[in-house]
Amino acid sequence: LQWRYCCDFLILSDSAIIQGAFLQAEKLCIPSSLSSLPKADWSRVGRPILLALQEICGLDEPDSRPNLQALTWKKRIVCVVWLKLLSREAREDVEKAWRENPFFSLQNSLPEMNHAVLMELVKSTAAAPIFARFLLLLPRDRIAMELGRLTEHVRSDPGGEDDVRFFLEVWWELWKGREELKSETEETIEMMFANQFARLSSDSPHAAKRLKLDSAEMTASSPNTDILHVLFNALKDMTDLVASTNVCFQSLSISLDALYTSFLITQEVVLPVTEQLDVLCKMTNCRGEIETLNAELIRDAQKDLSASLSPSPFQPSTMKLSEALKIITCLVQFWKDKGLLVVSDPLTPCFSTVRLQRSIQRVLTALDEVPETATETNTLRDLLKSLDLPAAENTPDIQAQVTAVIIAHRMQDYQSFAELFAGQASWARSELWVHCLEENQAAFRQHRTLFSLSSTLMSLLHAENSDVSQCRKLMKIAADIFSALSLEDKNQTLAAMLGLSSRGFFRQPVPYAVTEGFQQELNMAFNCIIQGGGGASAAVSQGNLTTAVSLVARVAFQNPEAALKSCCHSAIFNKGAFSLMAKILQQLPGLKAQLGGKNEGEPKDDKVNAASGRSLLCKCLQDTVRSKSMSASEKQQLLKFLGLLMTPDVMTEEEKKKQSFLLPQEVVNTFVLPSLSFSLQLLHAALSVEATPSPHWVMNCSPFPLLFVLAQLYNQAYRCWEEPADGAVHLRSMDTKELLVSVLTTLGQLVGAEIEAAPSSWSRALFWLYNKIEALDWTVRFHLRPVWGEHFKNEVPSSLLEVCDLPEEDWSGLDLPEYGQGTGLLAWMECCSLSDSLRSTMLSCLSLDRHRPDHVSMFSKGLLVVLTQTLPWSSVSQWERLLGVLRELITSACLSVPFSLEYVDFLPLLDLRQFSCELRLSVLLLRVLQLLCGSSCSDWLSSDGWAHICRLYAHAMRDMMNCVKAKLPLHSSSLDQEVLFVLSQLFCHIQHIQVMMPGGQSEPLFLCSLEILSHYEAVMAAFPESCSHAESDNTRHFFSTITDNLSNQHMKAVLQQKIAQLVSSAA
């Protein structure tokens, strides 16, 4: 097969031309021969060979860019000549060669020659890349030997810059050619060369002796096998051959890159795509070929960049970093002294200048991180920094052109360039940008790239004087790209689009033609779905479903809200379509966005719990339901549609966890809870109407199930700031909780009266209700106390009985896991908040010896902790009861509150006994809020919870202010100074809490602070002698200092403006 393969492309006539050229060159050598040709004679002898190659390859100039035929023949000639030399070294058996060597016919027809012929042939035909590729196929020791021969040839007379360029080109091709060789798998000329070398190396002992370096003489530790050592020392020996700045820069950049990739990095350095583009544009632009920009030019630049950022394939075995630094330092110093490191034209940097800039930048950065203190390091660093190299500039046009070529030809990392290209709004108005998108859609089929493209398209659509036809064309291109994505990528893209806007490309007004075109596409898509299987038939083929999902996804990509509204309309008003619409949406979880925040209709983070917002689909359903009245069958379709969407469905075969498109709590929050409060108000109003004598009308309205449902709602609202259990109704309104308590109490009293009048008639229903209520929180039963009457005892946590002496005939304990040892005081305080009667019972039965200071101290500490636990979940009425409890405990000396007059350096001689309760209560609440705002408790509550705490605290402060004002006689100044002092203390406390409050939930505290200042000002005005000019000045300074700690600048400014008005009338 190898023979046949070779014969297919070895054209006899071309081979005869090559053979004739070599024979003619042999004659020109007489009386010598090609086997002993000196380097100096090649210019005379080699001309026939070069002319023959020019004829075969069709090249006008040796430096022209070769076509495929020329490249193939170059490879053949280099391969044949080199194998000719190797065969002679190995003393190949001719009888075996003609059978196993595919190049035998041409190779055997050529005269004997030496390595000078090979080297000059490679140099003259610009075949250094080919030579390097063949080198990379050889063993490492053989590469070192061949590079040694190359070095000797370059240094031999006559030597010049062309020889140095040839050497540098081979060197760099070795560095950048390794990646391409890794992907070669087919039987090529390179592979045949490698196979022939392997055959010659193993055929005979003579071959092995000559082609394989003797391991005893040339080991891996020998300098001769260290390729880096060979190359660096060869360049050092060629220093005097360099006579131009261009070759000097080329030598330095290659040697610095070799240093960097061999000693200073251990893995590939990955540049950001923007930096890659900048480098590629500079390397391309400085060659002056922008007008004729071609793929090969950019591909070569990419290879150069990759080679300079990847670890060298030839890691040093004997050479040290210091040795390499010393050689490069000597080179730089020598060429600098000769004046070769000065740029002749700084306005137009050449390729070698740009490349050297990059090499120096990389090496200097890496040397700063290397723990190397050698003199060579510092010397080289100083020399490189002293070089003055002009900077090359790029323009957006060049960047766009280069990026487009990379994308069009699928070059290295083209997908990253596609993402960059898609997101460049500054390029988007050019024909090049649109053409590249249209012709290379496959390159943009990643959801991140498409998201960047969508953002750019939005900026074009919403710009002034936008090109309507171009925008429509770009929208179609973007939609076509989206349609070609996998379902997973489509969902990721839809989720990202919803992050921009729920209305996609139409979040702002767009030209009418664009809107009209999209509306036509939307209508056509849903008409096709309905007519193709979205009717009454429940059975939908997989093919039809896949098509329907693609159609809906395509229009949803352009405008999610419009697509979902059409889904909702079809599901409700097209008979039987709800099933197909549900199946379509379950395939598109990317549309499950939560709405909330400042602008209605704008999505927020998907991670937000569904209970705190509503989905875009719920909003669309609401809009659809409100826009048109529904028949009974349409209402049934809505219910079935919602039921299917709430049913967990497996999205993929690999995904084990089942998910639903709509969470049940979303549906409840959207469609049930908004009308729940109104329903409770109606029920409360109906129950408040005076009824006719027994039996009450409510007994005909299923009162016991109604009581149970209300009790369940209250149970779920009891801890309203906590996240609910799965499927639970979430009530975040304390007003609703208050209303529930009122309705429960009123309904319980009415039902209880009827039970008391006829107990035997209702006993079964009563026990049913009691058994149901047992599953709820224990506090719920106390709201139904009128219903139980004398039938059941009061059941409380057993721990309560340890702190409260309650009669056993009326009270019994419950073993509740959440109420363990030490929680009796918590249960006691919860009972105090439930009703006025329970509060009185709890206070009268409290087990506390007020004459024992240790008991009072322990009780006071426990109460502080319990109050911290109870405050956030209390409604306003419950909080008022607890404030009353605290006042009674303080006045009865059961509660010890160590009072420290904070923020006061000097205490006037005042009688504060009348205000002791208010002062102590304010300090107690300050301690409670300090605990709540501390690091151990600050994450307990949501923002709504903190706002509620602020309202409760402000309510308590207003209550204290009213008490203080009530104690001030109308026409007597006996307590005016005391009142001012107490108000100042209250102001200090509330400011301290306002600073601590997390989440900025401090508006109620701010308003309360303003009220305190108004009261302070009113007392000063009513009693001019209460405060001197100096005292009022000190007070203003004192209050201003406290408010300086506020983070809200607006609140701070308003308070300080109010403080400035506190001027004593006595002044």
Automatic annotation (TrEMBL):
Highest taxon in the source lineage: Eukaryota
Record InterPro entries: GEMIN4
Assigned GO CC terms: SMN complex
GO-annotated biological processes: rRNA processing; spliceosomal snRNP assembly
Protein's recorded name: Gem (nuclear organelle) associated protein 4
Organism: Xiphophorus couchianus
Taxonomic path: Eukaryota, Metazoa, Chordata, Craniata, Vertebrata
